[in-house]
Specification:
With 409 residues, the protein is mainly α. Helices cover 79% and strands 0% of the residues. It is globular, with a radius of gyration of 26 Å.
Amino acid sequence: MSRKWLEHEGPEWVDKRIITREQYEQILDLYHDNKHAIGVLPLLGSILVGLGILSFIAANWQEIPQLVRLILIIVLMVVFYAGGELFRKNDHDRLGLAMTALGLTCFGGGIVLIAQMFHLVSYDITSFIIWGSVGTLLTYLYRSKLLYLMSLLIFTVAQWYGVVEHHQFSYVCFAIMVVGLGYYSWRRQHVGVIWCFAVSFMLQALMLVIEQEWKFLWIFVPMMLLYTLGDWIKDRSSGFALQSVPLASAFLFAIVMVLAFDDFTRGDRLELLAQIPYFMGALLLLFAVSLYGKWKHNRISSAFEWILAVPFIYLHSGIAVMYLLALFTFSFYVLWRGYMEQWRFKINFATVLFICTTMVAYFKLTWDFMDKSLFFIIGGLLLLTLSWFLNRRKKVVLRDANEGGNHNE
């Protein structure tokens, strides 16, 4: 929460008599922009100093004796961790957190430098797993979003490195990330943290499917598993954060099917299709668990979102059309739910989805026979018109909702 946001929203609370003018001013006094600036400056300064020290050592690494190198790595790591604790004890939490983050960075850099120093050859990503595991432990110890994001990035990059360089997917890395950082996300219920976890989960699931050379449609199993977990989160914002990534992924898959499916050969299609009994069984099981979670939290109407997971690709004809209809239906549904819930973010999100779907349909239907200049001109005008209309409609609905709330008082 920022002072700028409070200055914008606070007067409306006073007008609605939610709080008094005195209470508003007292709340406003708790948020000073200069305090935030003071907190950010030490954080940035410590990061620059730490990176400067590490870059200096790396530049002169070959000239430093091996024993001195080893001592330097250990000393730097101890200094950063000890400095973090010292600053925290003196109520400088941000600076202490920055020092701890540098200690974690130094730990990972030390692993790489020591391996280079002693000519150790690795055929897997065990060292990265150890680095990410230490980051996960520090995340639980300090309950820090920064350390969480660093650990998540380490696991994700490590998995990518293992797939690209060693041609193997690390189930250990994936399991530690899901159990360690996933449980932390579940407990903390922070929207940004959950969203980042969902992105990492989907990227690693994609790496798994590609590296194992599975039929591509199998990606929908971990995708909808993630979506189903969102139905069991009580807080709607956190659940939506977890579900938005798989829904966006399914939405993107449908767009590809609309635009490119007609160009697929028989071999291309076979590369996508999973075995029907196992694949459909897994999806139906997840659908049943998802429905129960929605019913338990009074969200049964959101079951309509599963339309994006329907495998129309198994049909014999009309596949692109069915995916296009699914895109339009999903966009209209999310837009309707946003208006019903008066949820500004969902309305904006649905507006973007509807405009994207409209442009996909326009591209699909007109690209082959329309003059390209005319194509872009009409497409741009259509996009501007839709954007204006939907934004105008959003403002009207939200204004009516606010006026209705005032009348009810």
